[in-house]
Structures are given as structure tokens and as C-alpha cells.
Write a structure and sequence with these properties.
Length: 519
């Protein structure tokens, strides 16, 4: 074979590999409103940056006539490219080849690109669209999943891992995304479940649709498995690019710095309009956050889940920060099981990847009730406490209004080693709210007032007295628990100044293999 013939042979092989399962199956993929594996990579990565690896790998199965059904690439496209000029490692499962099912060879390709991500310190992005394990290969496919899971664990906290579910992801396949840092799903086309509707009907006699069981909405709002939901694959992949722009390449790098023209010393005049005069009136903490951060650009994480706490990424003076904030507009901002889990996971991610944390506190306490107690609020609330206490990144806390009871301690207080703690003059720092406190402190006076018929007048006076004496930031400031009481309009300047001071922070905990977070 001449050199030109060899070049033509190479081109033919590449064409065959790029054809996936063929024109018919590609057409079916498009009919379902889904892109192909390669189309997705083109949309995700910078134009012309993708370098494919293992393009000609095929499976090794000889049972059930599989030796006569071989496709170059074996149902997954792997390689590396760039997003915003920064390298990422990627794999994209091809549903047009054996339904994207995972064989030993398919798994080996994914493992190889995962190893490259860790070796080179590049984020790993997996585009999942698979029918699950390839039944014809039996335990080899199961072993392939386990090899992927092991690598997910080893890469955790070393490089950011992002899972994008763009079709079915069922059975054991769900545990790889579950270990990764962020999961994206698309409305009406992404599904995740350990056991599908047919199995559930057989075993428990429940009838449920794929969407209700494991669709994007179910996992974004109920289970909390999904972090981001998009209306289309195009929008989803654009969101992945946006997220990568906030993140460092690995645990040894800093996040990229973006040039901004939002003045560091800009006054936050909107905050005075956002904060209500009444301590019991709700407001949207996201509006306050938007007034403080660069250009109001906030990428909220887990927006549909545990809405009583808000977490996400923003920039301050061009640098990435992680934000954790109680949300008074939902359940009064109380901490509950779901909010504790959501906050703890986010805090631990930021700590793993050197992203400073800003915490906005307006919390009346932990949500009361038997469902919370029996659901393990003690254990789960301790996870948020553990995460904040364990974090060694710069931590800046601002109390905007309420900070009551144990929730005050948990929300990055000075006592669990936040670096700078600020409060507005509107802050109320106390063991409990005035209405509950006076019932304990002035029990006899209230009983007497009830007998005399002037209960309401007495309660109002006692509440005002308690609020004046305890429900303010100055007692905490006297004790050094609050570093400074600041005017709301000074928020941006003070936070950025604090982050600049902490830029060189170095802190190490005691030597140990690892702590034992209360899982």
C-alpha cells in the first residue's frame, strides 16, 4: 500500500469513526431533540480545539454475535480541548452506538481520559447519554463502572469534575455523576434513577413516569441530586462553559481573574431599599448579593433545591468568590436538613479549590418540627458546621439582620474561625428572638400583666427593651465577635478590602489522615 493509499485508509477509518452508529441512528437522535456526541463537544469546546484520543478503539466481546457488530470508538468520544482558552478533558457518550452502553473498552477510554485530567491538572467534563452497562459483557462492564467510580473518588478535590446528563443515566451509572462536583440536566430529556419505572412497578407496584421519577425537575427540586437545569442542550452546554470560567484548573491553582470596570469602592445604595424596616418582613437576599458583587453577575448553584439558603459563584474585583446566604424570602431563612446539606457541599467544594467564601447571615434558627428532628437535623446541621469549621480558605461573614441561637454559630461565626466578621446596625445577635426570649426572662411579669389586662402593652414594652439591650450587634462587637459594624452602603468596599488582606492566608489543621464528617 502506497503512502497516499495509507492516507486514504486513515481518512476512511476516521470517517467511519465519526459516523457513530450511522445516519439512521443519528436521525433518530435528532428526532428525539438531542444532539450527537460530537455535536455536543463542538458546542461545549472552543472552536477547533478538540483533540480526540482512542478514536479507533473497539470492544472485545465475542458472545451473542457481538464480534460482527463493531464500531470504531465503541460508543464514547474522548479527548481534550479548551474552554475560554483553558484546557479541559472530556468524554461524550454516543447513544447512536449500542445506546451508549458501557463495555470494558468504553470504560477503559473514559478511565484513560480521567487519568490524563488528574495528571495534567485539568477539569474533567463528562457528557452522559447511556443505556447503562452492556449486558453482553456481563461483569466486565460492571468492573468498568467500578474503575470509573474509583477514579472519581481519587480525582475528588484535585480537579473539578462536572457531569452533564443529556439522556438516560440509570442503574450503577448514576454513581459516577453523584461523586462529581456538579451535575447539569436538561428539561424533558435527562433522566437519572437507580431503578427505572418498570422495575419499581414490578417490585412495589407503584406507577411512575421517567420524568416524575428521575427527570431534571425531580432532581433539581426534590432530591437535590442536580445542581443546574437548562431548557435545552445548547443552553446547558453554555452554562457549563460559564461555570468553568469561575473555577480554577485544579486544587493547586487559583481561579482565573477577569478584568472588570465595576469600581472597588462603589457604594451599595440599593441595600438600604432592599432591607425592610421590620425585622420580620421577608426580602430577597439575591437582590442584596447582586448589589455587592461585580456587575450583579451571580451564578446560583442548586437554585431549585432548599431555597431557604442561597449558594453560588460571583466575582469581587474580578476574582471568583463562593457565596453562602440565608434566604429570608423562603422559610424565613431557617436552616433545615436540605439547606444544611446544600450549604455544606458547596462550602467543601470552595475550600477544596481555593475559592474564598463570603457568608451573608440572616437566620432565625433551625427549622423546628418532628419531621426535622426525625429527619436528622442534628446530624445534617452538623455537616454545615463541620464544613465551615474545616475550611481554611479566606472566610468573610456579614450579618445583615437576624443571627439567633446555634444557627448564629454555624453560619461562619468568629467562633468557628471566620477571618472577618461584620454586621449591619440592623443585625440582631442573640440566643433567640425577642418574642420568645421575653417569655422566659419575664415570665412572672407577663403572668401578672395578663391578670391585670394589659398583656399586649407589657409584651410590647418588654420586646422593645430586649431588642434595645440584646438584639443588636454591639454586645458581640464589645466581645470581639464582630470585627466591625458597617453601614450597608460600604459593603462592597469592606468585603473586597478584607479579601485583599486575606489573599496570602495560610492555615493548616492538625496532622491526620482525614476527619470524620457526620455523614
Amino acid at each position: 500500500m502506497s503512502y497516499l493509499e495509507k492516507l486514504k485508509d486513515l481518512a476512511d477509518r476516521e470517517t467511519q469513526a465519526e459516523a457513530g452508529g450511522g445516519t439512521y441512528r443519528i436521525a433518530k437522535q435528532h428526532e428525539a431533540g438531542k444532539l450527537t456526541a460530537r455535536e455536543r463537544l463542538e458546542m461545549l469546546l472552543d472552536p477547533g480545539s478538540f483533540v480526540e484520543l482512542d478514536k479507533f478503539v473497539t470492544h472485545r466481546c465475542t458472545d451473542f454475535g457481538m464480534q460482527d457488530q463493531k464500531f470504531p470508538g465503541d460508543g464514547v468520544v474522548t479527548g481534550h480541548g479548551t474552554i475560554g482558552g483553558r484546557m479541559v478533558c472530556v468524554f461524550s457518550q454516543d447513544f447512536t452506538v449500542f445506546g451508549g452502553s458501557l463495555s470494558g473498552a468504553h470504560a477503559a477510554k473514559i478511565c484513560k481520559i480521567m487519568d490524563l485530567a488528574v495528571k495534567t491538572g485539568a477539569p474533567l467534563i463528562g457528557l452522559n447519554d447511556s443505556g447503562g452497562a452492556r449486558i453482553q459483557e456481563g461483569v466486565e462492564s460492571l468492573g468498568g463502572y467500578a474503575e470509573i467510580f474509583w477514579r472519581n473518588v481519587q480525582a475528588s478535590g484535585v480537579v473539578p469534575q462536572i457531569s452533564v446528563v443529556l439522556g438516560p443515566c440509570a442503574g450503577g451509572a448514576v454513581y459516577s455523576p453523584a461523586i462529581t462536583d456538579f451535575i447539569f440536566m436538561v428539561e424533558n430529556s435527562s433522566y437519572m434513577f437507580v431503578t427505572g419505572p418498570d422495575v419499581i412497578k414490578t417490585v412495589t407496584h407503584e406507577e411512575v413516569t421517567k420524568e416524575a421519577l428521575g427527570g431534571a425537575e425531580a432532581h433539581a427540586e426534590k432530591s437535590g441530586v442536580c445542581h443546574f437545569v437548562a431548557p435545552s442542550e445548547k443552553a446547558c452546554l453554555a452554562s457549563v462553559r460559564k461555570l468553568v470560567g469561575f473555577l480554577p484548573q485544579n486544587n493547586l491553582d487559583e481561579a482565573p481573574v477577569r478584568k472588570v470596570d465595576d469600581a472597588v469602592d462603589r457604594l451599595c445604595n440599593e441595600i438600604l431599599k432592599i432591607l425592610p424596616n421590620s425585622p420580620n418582613k421577608p426580602y430577597d437576599i439575591r437582590k442584596l448579593i447582586a448589589d455587592v458583587i461585580d456587575h450583579g453577575e451571580f451564578m446560583e448553584v442548586h437554585a431549585g433545591y432548599a431555597q431557604n439558603i442561597v449558594v453560588g459563584f460571583a466575582r469581587m474585583a474580578g476574582k471568583t468568590v463562593g457565596i453562602v446566604a440565608n434566604q429570608p424570602a423562603f422559610l424565613a431563612g431557617c436552616l433545615d436538613v436540605a439547606a444544611s446539606l446544600k450549604g455544606a457541599r458547596f462550602v467543601r467544594f470552595c475550600d477544596a479549590f481555593n475559592i474564598p467564601l463570603i457568608t451573608f447571615v440572616d437566620v432565625p434558627g433551625f427549622l423546628p418540627g418532628t419531621s426535622q428532628e426525625h429527619g436528622g437535623i442534628i446530624k445534617h446541621g452538623a455537616k454545615l458546621l463541620y464544613a465551615f469549621a474545616e475550611a481554611t480558605v479566606p472566610k468573610v461573614t456579614l450579618i445583615t439582620r437576624k443571627a439567633y441561637g446555634g444557627a448564629y454559630d454555624v453560619m461562619a461565626s468568629k467562633h468557628i474561625r471566620a477571618d472577618f466578621n461584620f454586621a449591619y446596625p440592623t443585625a440582631e445577635i442573640a440566643v433567640m428572638g425577642p418574642e420568645g426570649a421575653i417569655n422566659i426572662l419575664y415570665r412572672k411579669e407577663i403572668a401578672a400583666a395578663e391578670k391585670d389586662g394589659n398583656l399586649q402593652e407589657k409584651r410590647t414594652r418588654l420586646v422593645d427593651l430586649y431588642r434595645e439591650k440584646f438584639a443588636n450587634p454591639y454586645k458581640a462587637a464589645e466581645l470581639g465577635y464582630i470585627d466591625q459594624v458597617i453601614a450597608p452602603e460600604e459593603t462592597r468596599r469592606m468585603l473586597i478590602s478584607s479579601l485583599n488582606v486575606l489573599a496570602g492566608k495560610r492555615e493548616r489543621g492538625p496532622a491526620r489522615k482525614h476527619g470524620n464528617i457526620p455523614l
